[in-house]
Structures are given as structure tokens and as C-alpha cells.
Amino acid sequence: MARIIEHGTWTLEPADEGLHEPGSELLWNESYYFDFAAPDGSVAGYVRLGLYPNWDRAWYWAALVRPGQPLVILADNDAPLPKPGTADVHAETYTATQQITDPFGPARITLTGTASLVPDDGSAEEKTGLSFDLRWDTAGGVYPYKDIPRYEIPCTVTGLVSVGGRKIPIDAHGERDHSWGERDWWKVSWLWTSGRLDDGTFVHGMQANVGFPLAWPCFAVPPDGDIEHRDGFSVATVFEDGLPARSDLRFPGAPMTVTPLAFAPVSVTSPAGRPARFPRALCRFETEDGRTGHGWTEWHQPPGWEDHGWTHLAGEDA
């Protein structure tokens, strides 16, 4: 079994790779993420399955980005819940499956369906076929968060993607994560980031803007090494027209900057009709000591996000 960091207030068990008994909250949620980015940043993508059993729906998102080309995205916020005991989604325009047969080991994701082709010049969207057949293999260990039921797994990612019938082989790096509990997307802004540098180092960090400072969790996996917990991650972001232009990641021992290369955003609406924006982007990572790499970063923007503690410099240099 993959090495699991032991530093939390709860114990991660192999059974936690599966589905959990829902709590009573309307916005109780179980979430699986899978993302990948080619080492040269030429292609990247992600899948998210979010289950809201008490709201009687799932959120299913799948995106593919290639810098300079239209975004390919399937974002269904009213998907049918999977059948009990499975994490497969069967909708009118797509079918998606998820298999994790060996806890903390390989995960296989498939998708066959129709997605939107979104040009960045604002011209009309088109529809196109999109399929994924991808495998995430654990690289370096498993990272449970300290105080909440959530864990992250750095991975190598291999398989095949098809867009409009064109097949794209994938040999990439990425991350997968799993969390469960109440998830109110309309309360708190956050940044989450994960990438791999050109020397083989994986990095991950997150910061939620809860109104007071915390030692936010982060980890690194050195080349050919095991996962290492680090404390004290924080971030400052420059926004332009509401979108992140650059984030300076204060990563212990390796400060770095992430710059968005291609966005794959979604929007979400609460049961009460409140909107939130979720810009997620393939980014270029650049460390102060000269290393570079690629990965994914997200900047969640709930109502009033500008007042939630972000460094908001709208077009100025940080």
C-alpha cells in the first residue's frame, strides 16, 4: 500500500476510498477530483464528480485544455446521482465511470459523450465528441489533510483522450483527491494548487480565506522520494478583470509563481439561487531557484469574494 502521511486528527483508512454515509446537511457532499498536465504543458485536463445526495443531484465536470485552442468542457450541475454503491454517471449526453479497485492505488476514469467547444475569442460555442480513458497511478504517497476528511494523491497519468474523433495519447502527471462533508460553495473563497516541476518534484498547497491566519497544509514529493508534509503555505494573487493573472505561492522552502495558461472555468448556483464562479486553469509553475513545471490551480469566487481576504490588486504588480 502507498505510504500515508500521519499528521492529522483523524485516521485515513482503505475503506475511505469508497463512498461514505451522507450527513444530514442539505449541502453534504462527496467529491472526487482527477487532473493531469503534460510535462510541456501542451495538453491538460480534469474530471470532478461531486455527489449531493440530500439535494438529489450530482455535479459532473470534465475539461480538456490545449493552450491556443478552444476549451473543451462538459459541465453538468444537474446530473443524476449514481446508482447506490457506484460512482458511475449515466446521463442523456454522456456516460462516465470511475474505478478504484485497490485503495490508494490505480484509479481508472472513462468518459464518452458530447462536450462544448468554447473559443477564447468569444465566438459561438459548438458541440464535439469527448472521451477519456485514463489511469492515475500513485507517485510518492498519500496526503490526508490534518483536520478534515480529505486526502490528496500525486500521480502519473496515462491513457487516451479523444476530441472530435482525434485521439490524443496522454503521458502526464497530476493529482487526485477525495473529500466528504458539508460543502457550501457560496461561503468561502479558496486557492488550491498542484503541479510537478521539471526536476521531478511534485508540489501541492491550499489556502481558504476564513478571516484569520492559519498554517495551511502543503506537501512536496522530491524526485524518486516519499511524500513530505510542510506547514505554512500562503498565497498572494494578482487579479485582472476578476480573473487571476498570477499567484505567488509562499511554499516553505521553495517559493514559486503560477501563471494561468488556459482556463477551464465553471459556475455554480446554490439552492437559494446564489451564483459563484470557479475559475480553474492549467498553469506554468516557476520557482525562485529556476525550476519550472505545469499543473492546475483553482481560485474559487463565491458571492463577495473580493472581501474574503484575497490579495486583490486588479492589474497591479504584487
TrEMBL record:
InterPro entries: DUF7064, DUF7065
Disordered: region residues: 292-318
Domain of life according to the entry: Bacteria
Domain DUF7064: 185-303
SUPFAM superfamilies associated with the record: AttH-like (SSF159245)
Domain DUF7065: start-end pairs: 151-183
Name this polypeptide is given: DUF2804 domain-containing protein
Species, as recorded: Actinomadura monticuli
Biological classification of the source: Bacteria, Bacillati, Actinomycetota, Actinomycetes, Streptosporangiales
